[in-house]
Amino acid sequence: MSTLKAWDAINGATGRCVATINGSVEDMIYVKNIKAKVEKTKSEIKVLGQTGAKHKATGWRGTGSMKMYYCTSKFREMMVKYIDESVDTYFEMLIENEDPSSEIGRQTVILKQVNINTVDIAKIDIDSTELDEEIEFTFNGVEVRNSFDKVIGE
Predict the structure, then answer these.
(1) What is the dihedral angle through the alpha carbons of 69, 111, 39, 103, rounded to the nearest 10 degrees?
(2) Is 77 helix (H, G, I), strand (E, B) or coil?
(3) If you count Cβ atoms within 10 Å of the first and of the last residue's Cβ in the chain, which end, N or C, has fewer?
(4) How open is the CA angle 75-76-81, to the nearest 5 degrees?
(5) Position 138 confidence tier, pLDDT thresholds 50, 70, 90
(6) How confident is the model at residue 149 (pLDDT cuts 50, 70, 90)?
(7) What is the pTM of this model?
(8) Cα–Cα distance, 17 to 137 (Å, whole number)
């Protein structure tokens, strides 16, 4: 029986996140964590002669969130542009996992047409020594540019 090599468990702090916003590349070093997920949308299908419902995939939706240090105005500026001019901003985000101590290589995922849902427009907290914020977003496409190598167990 094979098992996962302990050193192939990916260290989450060794990743990177880069956004391309209006042609400008932003190294998002202020991100503390980010999570993007794809959820299938399904229809319930009833079949004659069966009491249980079946399910059929009919589409998908991409959602995510990122928690970051409160030290960039980039996303507040995007939201204000939408408020003032009704101009929405869509951008790409590259999220990469690569742990140099692991033997499984790196995974690179690109989220396309990312659009923010929420942003803390202003914030003060006297009990905090470091302000952070959480931003929720959606995306309309995804590309897996690099995949982890096959895990070879011990």
Answers:
(1) -80
(2) helix
(3) N
(4) 100
(5) very high
(6) confident
(7) 0.88
(8) 15
